[in-house]
Design brief:
Pathway: Cofactor biosynthesis; thiamine diphosphate biosynthesis. This protein is mainly α. The chain has 11 helices and no strands. It has one domain: Heme Oxygenase, Chain A. The structure holds 4-amino-5-hydroxymethyl-2-methylpyrimidine. 4-amino-5-hydroxymethyl-2-methylpyrimidine binds next to α5, α8 and α11.
């Protein structure tokens, strides 16, 4: 029998869940990357962690303007005014995050002003920039935003699970994205994305799915900078 769900069936369960099942392998590749697993089992190379720290600071500086464009799209296009509040809370946590990167890097002896973005980071930032265009639909942008946050939430939450051997000096980093509050915030983003995807034309739906896959690929490449393929 045909295993494909009708559009109507998918809308009930939520498009994101459907896509997560369909793209399970690449999602797992992004959320259970060897770098994350090395944090979780305590074998992480601290030089690799410092590389990630410096590179992620550069990424977050590009991510904030992307989120600003999502906020603008929500203001213009959303059918629900609470969307804006969720996005704005995300921007506020990015503000904290940037301050955290600065103090954390001082602690680790990483000079942020001297960090040179690696190719995977440049590619990811360029991809984000392409999504800042007003031509990109709100539905595509909010789905992208959710995916970017959700990968970090799932990855770092894994390092906090019972039985994980995450080194003490990395637990705060893991809590930053792996804490329950951040999990709830990701759920709020997922709910918005599902609501929008449930009533979007097929061509936009396809664009959102393709963009989601690109995010997952970029996340894998991003982790690879610190661990694995050079
Ligand atoms: C590469 C990357 N993806 C996602 C997040 C989540 O904020 C981040 N800080 N960095």
């Amino acid at each position: 029998m045909e295993g494909k769900k009708t559009r109507e069936e998918v809308e009930k369960s939520g498009m994101i869940d459907t896509w997560m099942k369909k793209h399970r392998l690449i999602y797992t590749g992004a959320t259970k990357h060897p770098f994350i697993l090395s944090i979780r089992d305590g074998t992480v190379d601290l030089e690799a962690f410092k590389t990630w720290l410096g590179q992620d600071y550069i990424f977050v500086r590009a991510f904030a303007p992307f989120v600003a464009t999502v906020l603008i799209k929500a203001w213009k296009e959303s059918d629900d005014c609470s969307d804006m509040e969720v996005i704005l809370s995300g921007m506020a946590s990015l503000n904290d995050e940037i301050a955290w990167f600065k103090s954390e890097s001082t602690m680790w002896g990483v000079q942020l002003s001297e960090v040179v973005p690696q190719k995977a980071n440049q590619d990811y930032c360029r991809f984000l920039e392409s999504l800042m265009s007003p031509d990109v639909e709100y539905t595509v942008a909010i789905t992208t935003f959710w995916a970017i946050e959700a990968v970090y939430q799932a990855s770092f939450a894994l390092c906090l699970e019972d039985g994980s051997k995450t080194p003490a000096e990395l637990r705060e980093t893991c809590r930053r994205w792996g804490n329950d509050g951040f999990g709830q915030y990701c759920n709020s983003l997922q709910k918005i994305a599902n609501r929008r995807l449930g009533k979007t034309p097929d061509d936009v739906l396809t664009k959102a799915e393709v963009t989601l896959l690109r995010v997952l690929e970029h996340e894998v490449e991003f982790w690879n900078m610190s661990h694995g393929a050079a």
